[in-house]
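Researcher: Batch entry, complex prediction.
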Amino acid sequence: MLKPFRKLLLKLILEQAIIFEERAYRFYERVLERTSKDETKMLLKRLMNAELKHRIKLEEVQKGGDLGALRVTSDSEMDNIEAIRDEWPDIESDVTREEILGIALAKEKTSLSFYSVLAKKARIRAAGDLFNVLSNEELQHVKMIEEELSKNR
Amino acid sequence: MKRMVQCFEEAFDTRKPYIVMDAGLRVVSVDRIVGTVGKCGELDTRFRDINRGDRAERTRREKILTKMAEYSEFPPIDVYLHRGNYYVADGNRRISACKILGVEYIDANVKEYIYRDDEELINGSLSRRKFEQETGLKHVELINESGYAVLLKDISLYSPNLPVLDRAKEWYSTIFLPACEQIKDSELMRRYHAHNPEDIFVIIACFYHEFMGGAPQNVSFGTIISGFKFAHRIPQRKFLRTVPFRFIHRMVFNKARTIKKL
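Model: Structure tokens for the complex:
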């Protein structure tokens, strides 16, 4: 009896992840408009590209329905999912490159832990693999941004 | 006053330097046949000769209509192509029958008329010929012919292990046609109202080629369209975003715990 609700909940979790990826894309898009440094522009385009790919992958899973795949049970896990629902901050006109990268780093770390949780909770291998791939990609983003930040130190 | 079909002689100025390219035998959409050659002012919009209502003419028309309704084979008509529009040089009665029976496509020998200084059109035409020669696909109709290069690129990314002609055929039936059907049913048609579904497919393919080196593999075209719409800020209906998901979670799992206790 609870199966339909569980399926709906899992679809909703994926929807939250899609929203997160969309916000990240728009954030990088806004920053890109204000950036003049070519190197940073390239990094931002790569990040935008990756966020769009993630969005597409997640939507495909959501539509396709490997949805018996996950089980979210405790409230602490829900908190993890809730964390990705936070809004991305607005960018002030005088914001520095470091501040932008700092925000991006924090958000990428949030999504890294989000996908890690989903990967652990997945009961079907294919779904687990997908979330592992996504969390690995987020890890790459974290590294990319950290590298970019360390260049200016 | 009766509305008449367009005249090739009015649409194309033969006093300007021009070239004629033989595009060969092709399948042409009847909707894009807009006029006639050499019968200016004689045909109405359904390609009927307004000056000839005599019995001989009526009999000829009826014969063609009956044959066409019985799916008999007809020789291809001859048409001139200029700026995406076709003009009938031979076969006005057959087009008239097509219009009555609602036939959508017809075989036609096509000659393309282009002004010598119209570089964009010449390049587009060359691009289409290259596409047709390399893929063997002769019924892909784009309004913006520069898009053929994008389609070639799309085919090159599809199943690279297959021979080119097979790959093109498979791409056409498994990717291109179903995608165009989906585009036809989507609001993208409203957004890009000056384009046909094939051209919108090119716009989407172009976006993914430039942005990520091609659309992601093993993903349905519906999702590809959705990604495109998102990136271009085209609004989408998202039912799941209206559902209070923490509430559903509580309802499902608290209920589950209660049932277990019982």
